[in-house]
Amino acid sequence: MCRTGQDPPPHAHQGPPPRRGDRSPGDTASDAVFSALLEDDVEELYEEAPCGYLSTLLDGKIAKVNATLLGWLGYTREHVIGKMSFSDLLTIGGKLYHETHFAPLLRMQGEVNGIALELKAADGTRLPVLISSKVKVGSDGTPQLIRTTVTDARDRRAYEAELLRRRREAEEARREAELSRKAEVEARQQAERDRNRLQGVLAVLQRSLVPPTLPQPEGLEAAAYYHTASVDQVGGDFYDLFPIGGGRWCFFLGDVCGKGPEAAAVTSLTRYTLRAAAIHDPDPVTVLSTLNTVLHQHYIGGDPRYCTAIFGTLTPSDAGFTVRLASGGHPPAVLMHADGTAEYLPTPGGLLVGILPNARFSAATCELAPGDTVVLYTDGLTEARIGPDGTRYGDEALLDYATDLAPATADKTVGALTTLLQSFGDGLDDDTAILALGIAPAGSP
Amino acid sequence: MTITGKADGPVVMLAHGFGCDQNMWRLMVPALASRFRVVLFDYVGSGASDVSAWSPERYGSLDGYAQDVLDICRELDLRDVAFVGHSVSAMTGVLAAAQEPERFAKLVLLVPSPRYIDDGDYRGGFSAADIEELLESLDSNYLGWSAQMAPVIMGNADRPELGEELTNSFCRTDPDIAQVFARATFLSDSRRDLASVTVPTLVLDCTEDVIAPREVGAYVHAAIPGSRLVTLDATGHCPQLSAPEATTEAVIGFLAQR
Amino acid sequence: MTDLSTTTRTTPTGPITEIAGDLDYHSAVRLREAIRAIDLRPGETLVLDLRGLTFCDSSGISVLIAAHRQAEIAQARMILRSVTHNVTRVLRTVGLDQLFDVRDGPEIDAPQQPSRTDLTRPGTRPGTGTD
């Protein structure tokens, strides 16, 4: 880089500068002669140096300029000397920088080195340069003028521009990567929101398949529990308890084969069919037969859908209530007696509902006396896995459990079975519904 | 932020202009400190400020900078502040004083310009093309101030650093932040805000200033009711460095008036 | 829990599929696909050998019903062979012991009297054994 006049004069000798005393006088003399031959004209050296020279007064007016710089800019000496200021040679940004940085720094330190600016040539083209300036101070210490060297920085600027371009490209790539990462996160969050919304819808749908609150019939105790195996799928279990007048009540509990929205649609159809049929004629076999006809007709030609269900009526009797129920392919109800015994209430021969046009359903009858409780459940309970080898809970275990539990009120029974279901943990992978109906033990309020 | 000088003295707040920092005031501070409590600060994004607090939205207009001024006033619970704003900061002070006039006792507008671009009869000193070129050159990182950053960009310094430690930190600006500040500064038009100034105001301009020419100083003086205008015998846009004594004298003289 | 496995071999009277393991909601789809892939000709008998079937829930029942319908549509028939006690009890619960042809032992590969129960024709009484 070209330096200001403070630099030592250019020396032809390639080695270190000669020092007095370590060389022979002859060497020094021949060096001097040699350099004098090459640079015998200081004025020519100033004018034709490979960098621009510029001297300005303290107010910025140009006092002296070399031919190199004039050549670069395309100005004549007359045009510049005493007429133009240094800042007139600068672009607008350069002027601003000169005012706010360059000039203050120069004032503060007496010199400024290697500042990148652009000069405006006479024809309007821009010349990227590096500027170094130094204040010349008089013998009394007052600043007199500013000497400036101007180095052509086109190549360097092109190189910097290339570096900047590469950096921008790298930043752009980084930004794009960041954007795509954000988009990915956004998509995941959207999926999560969709899933939550769907789960919300499914939960509402699921709740619509069972009564919002279980009624408490006069003289009876009723309790129910629904275990949802998956928040992502609607199960097909259902139950209900409703009055049909004259102190009589109907109840049902069942399980539509399959899962998901189609199963939920069948469940809904099943539930309303059972309620409507019960109003017409509450006889359990008749009600299940009506449901059978509806389900079978509904799915002729389509994917067959069927369910298992127990439907029953509760009629007040001298002892308490007479239970009459019928089963269509459903696991038998458990009857828990006040005396601490328990038994299955067999309903043999009842076929899956909806599978055949004319299915046979068998009825069973029993008396509910004070302290007695009848329990209906879906097969999620008995088919829960209870061991690492996949052993199922099973009918026998349930009967043993009920025997241990009896006598128990409907509330206590459902509470105990809920605890039992929870104890299965991951072994319980199906929806499970439980409905218990009982009469309070004698002497209780 | 730097607080110096006479702790119980009247408050003077010094606000630097575009591309600078509080070092700009270094030659004036000693004289002011003997009489005033001097509050110096760097706008967010400038000097040694916390760059993480910077956002292009807030600092995309001069209001964001005025907000910085008011934030400091609130934080220090400053009242009766004599605000000295250099260059674009003169307008920042005008905006801040319009918003919360009760905090400000006096305004000193040092080489102010409410509008840099010529507009009809108004002479701002720059053509629209000038400013466009300026912003473009900032965008292309081609100017000296970003060239200061060039050694950083290139990973190692292949040319001598600017000598002293002060020089290294002097008015160093992040190029991206400088672009936003430059747009906020040079595209701003605060002419309408001048009339809203209600506090006593001194306008200082210089005999020779390519950025805020004397016509602009006269315009500001005329637009602010009851303002005073003093032209400093100084060249350039930074009289606080080129003529610190004269500038300080003018400021103190104005602040001493009742 | 035992993973479900199925093996189908062809005999002169029709295909015999041995089903072993647990048939539940998770494995039912696989058995359904396996049976759907069986090419049944009119008059043939599809034998489902269930001696290795350790568990069958309502999903499994659905597959057996689908297999029964598939046989009907192909004018073939379906026999359940060597049904374990557990599975028999499930079939009884859902009443399918009345509908399906359930046999013990391997000697019924070529039944003399085919049992036919039409699931689609109204009025058909479900039953076991021969017509």
List the helices and strands and how they pair.
The complex is a heterotrimer of chains A (445), B (258) and C (131).
Chain A: H1 25-38, H2 42-48, E1 52-57, E2 62-65, H3 67-73, H4 77-80, H5 92-109, E3 111-120, E4 126-137, E5 143-152, H6 154-207, E6 221-227, E7 237-245, E8 248-256, H7 260-280, H8 284-298, E9 307-316, E10 321-328, E11 333-336, E12 342-345, E13 362-368, E14 373-377, H9 394-405, H10 410-424, E15 432-438
Antiparallel strand pairs in A: 1-2, 1-5, 3-4, 4-5, 6-15, 7-8, 8-9, 9-10, 10-13, 11-12, 11-14, 14-15
Helix pairs in contact in A: 7-8
Chain B: E1 2-5, E2 11-15, H1 29-33, E3 37-41, H2 62-75, E4 81-86, H3 88-99, E5 104-110, H4 128-139, H5 144-147, H6 150-153, H7 165-169, H8 175-186, H9 191-194, E6 201-208, H10 214-223, E7 228-235, H11 239-242, H12 244-256
Parallel strand pairs in B: 2-3, 2-4, 4-5, 5-6, 6-7
Antiparallel strand pairs in B: 1-3
Chain C: E1 5-11, E2 14-23, H1 28-36, E3 45-56, H2 58-73, E4 77-81, H3 85-93, E5 101-103
Parallel strand pairs in C: 2-3, 3-4, 4-5
Antiparallel strand pairs in C: 1-2
Descriptors for this entry?
heterotrimer, B: 258 residues, alpha/beta, Rossmann fold, seven-stranded mixed β-sheet, 17% strand, C: 131 residues, Transcription Regulator spoIIAA, five-stranded mixed β-sheet, 5 strands, globular
**Strand ordering within the main sheet of chain B:** 1-3-2-4-5-6-7
Unreliable spans of chain A: 1-21
CATH topology of chain B: Rossmann fold
Please tell me what the overall shape of chain A is. Answer: rod-shaped
Strand order of the largest sheet of chain A: 2-1-5-4-3
Helix/strand/pairing category of chain B: alpha/beta
Q: Please report the first level of CATH classification, the CATH class of chain B.
A: Alpha Beta
The biggest beta sheet of chain A, please? 5 strands, antiparallel
**Strand content bin of chain A:** 25-35%
Radius of gyration of chain A: 51 Å
User: By CATH's scheme, which homologous superfamily of chain B applies?
Assistant: Alpha/Beta hydrolase fold, catalytic domain
Look at the structure and give the mean pLDDT of chain B.
Answer: 82
Query: Helix count of chain A, per DSSP?
Result: 10
Order of helices and strands of chain B: EEHEHEHEHHHHHHEHEHH
Q: H/E element string of chain A?
A: HHEEHHHEEEHEEEHHEEEEEEHHE
Distance, first to last CA of chain A: 108 Å
Family (chain C): Belongs to the anti-sigma-factor antagonist family.
GO molecular function, one term (chain C): anti-sigma factor antagonist activity
Protein name (chain C): Anti-sigma factor antagonist
Biased composition (Low complexity) (chain C): 116-131
